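Saturday, quiet lab. Running sequence design on the structure tokens for the scaffold JK sent over.
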């Protein structure tokens, strides 16, 4: 297949200020040329979104008509899914079986928000004044800058564009400079769906330079960001310029808690998926195994055995279970942190399994960090296939260790004890808790974090309200003339 990647600004495709080569992570070779957005492109995209916000072509549509456009987008996305999955796999190294199934489900997010568009209601206030009617109108919050990382980008943009467009906002979507291909191709689907010019704009651009121009642009009203906590701090600083509303979906260091009473093999299977799916490059990765000491040996023996059988291969082959990391920078970072953790006393349980292939492959690794709770691989998010292991002996200890992190995105609890499941899920500080499962997602369910994992929730009905603001409308109902305020009676 051949691809022609372009920026999408004000309803037109354009070449960008320059081109840059995007690297295929499984070969280390440039596989496509991508357009680069700089200040001029960012500014024009925001100005187009700002014009479209009040233009009757968009602002004049009924909520139901907006919903219909979103349904159409979902249908076209369903057709384009195989092509988009192929591009995402080429551009990020994420394996084709994951990109295919994820994009197929992204369609449901657009359908969910399509159905919500005409269910966003205002309200009436029984105001404490005679002859007055007051109602709250729900208005779109305005121009949304949606900024996403390279991983799961069609999903991460759907949880922003779906509610934003349902609410009547306009959007500038910035793809990551690491792998912008899938979102640039997605722009073609948006165009085909027939959204008026400027309602959705898709650009690229180096984050620190042009992401900053976007998030601080005076005409941006909301920044919906997914990425790392350090970037989030820059975004907060950038929005001092425009006082835009901000939602932050950031990283995690999520605990995966295994009690001795659980079905061990089920928990092992879930743990493998929790940390090694997407080669560990997932915000919800269950990267800290906390296992009850009495079953540690059995659990680890089964886990190490299953991990030794993971099929490493080319990401575009359906049989492959495990592909490369997205970037060489990420590969080097993980190598460094793992070496430091080993120096601090962590023990590698998976042996030396260097993967002898081109590209940015790094073998799945399990580190026994029992007794070295300050190991770097326990405390920092690595965004890679590194599982740290620690033990606990009591429920209280499990909760304390689970909460000893600056993050709070997700947690897994494996137990057959129902009352314990309730107690622990209530006390673990994270935005999502999965009990006897992991990674389950649905458009109906809110998702987001505590602490350095961010704030604001995506998914679910309430997320659509985050893209609205209220307008209080007062109507005087008396027919009596208003008297001159300066005439004494
Ligand atoms: P990143 O923070 O480096 O980049 C994310 C986006 O921000 C990119 O588009 C980038 O260009 C842009 N950006 C960078 N600097 C900017 C600035 N100063 N101003 C404005 N925009 C800027 O993240 P990454 O390395 O691409 O992705 C990995 C991170 O994303 C991890 O921490 C991961 O946990 C997180 N993540 C979170 C979720 C979630 O839903 N919570 C989902 C996926 C990924």
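Result came back. Writing it out in full:
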């Amino acid at each position: 297949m051949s691809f022609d990647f372009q920026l999408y600004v004000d309803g037109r495709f354009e070449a960008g200020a320059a081109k840059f080569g995007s690297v295929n992570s499984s070969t280390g070779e440039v596989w496509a040329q991508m357009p680069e957005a700089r200040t001029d492109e960012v500014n024009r995209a925001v100005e187009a979104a700002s014009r479209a916000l009040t233009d009757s072509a968009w602002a004049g549509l009924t909520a139901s008509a907006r919903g219909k456009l979103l349904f159409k987008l979902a249908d076209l996305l369903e057709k384009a899914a195989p092509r988009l999955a192929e591009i995402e796999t080429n551009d990020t190294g994420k394996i084709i079986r994951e990109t295919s199934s994820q994009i197929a489900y992204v369609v449901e997010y657009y359908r969910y928000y399509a159905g919500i568009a005409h269910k966003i209601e205002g309200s009436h206030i029984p105001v404490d004044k005679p002859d007055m009617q007051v109602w709250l109108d729900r208005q779109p919050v305005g121009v949304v800058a949606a900024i996403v990382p390279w991983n799961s980008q069609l999903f991460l943009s759907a949880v922003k564009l779906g509610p934003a467009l349902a609410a009547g906002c306009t959007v500038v979507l910035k793809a990551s400079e690491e792998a912008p291909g899938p979102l640039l191709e997605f722009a073609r689907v948006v165009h085909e769906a027939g959204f008026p010019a400027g309602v959705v704009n898709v650009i690229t651009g180096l984050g620190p330079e042009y992401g900053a121009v976007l998030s601080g642009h005076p005409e941006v009203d909301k920044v919906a960001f997914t990425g790392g906590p350090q970037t989030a701090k820059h975004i907060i600083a950038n929005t001092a310029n425009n006082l835009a509303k901000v939602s932050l979906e950031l990283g995690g260091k999520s605990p995966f808690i295994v009690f001795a009473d659980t079905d061990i093999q089920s928990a092992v299977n879930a743990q493998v998926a929790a940390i090694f799916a997407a080669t560990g490059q997932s915000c919800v990765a269950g990267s800290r195994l906390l296992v009850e000491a009495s079953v540690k040996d059995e659990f680890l023996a089964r886990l190490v055995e299953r991990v030794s059988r993971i099929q490493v291969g080319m990401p575009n082959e359906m049989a492959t279970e495990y592909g490369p990391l997205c970037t060489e920078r990420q590969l080097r970072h993980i190598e460094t942190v793992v070496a430091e953790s080993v120096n601090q006393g962590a023990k590698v349980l998976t042996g030396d399994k260097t993967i002898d292939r081109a590209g940015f492959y790094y073998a799945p690794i399990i580190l026994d960090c029992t007794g070295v709770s300050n190991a770097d691989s326990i405390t920092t998010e690595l965004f890679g296939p590194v599982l740290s292991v620690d033990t606990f002996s009591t429920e209280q200890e499990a909760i304390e260790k689970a909460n000893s992190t600056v993050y709070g995105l997700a947690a897994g609890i494996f137990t057959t004890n129902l009352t314990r499941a309730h107690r622990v899920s209530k006390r673990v500080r994270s935005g999502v808790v999965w009990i006897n499962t992991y990674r389950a997602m649905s458009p109906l369910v809110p998702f987001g974090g505590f602490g350095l994992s961010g704030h604001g929730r995506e998914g679910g009905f309430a997320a659509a309200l985050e893209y609205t603001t209220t307008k209080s409308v007062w109507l005087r109902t008396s027919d009596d003339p208003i008297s001159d305020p300066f005439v004494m009676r």
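Notes for JK: Residues 255-435 form a domain with the Aldehyde Dehydrogenase; Chain A, domain 2 fold (CATH 3.40.309.10). The CA atoms of residues 59 and 95 lie 40 Å apart. Ask whether to fix the surface positions before the next round.
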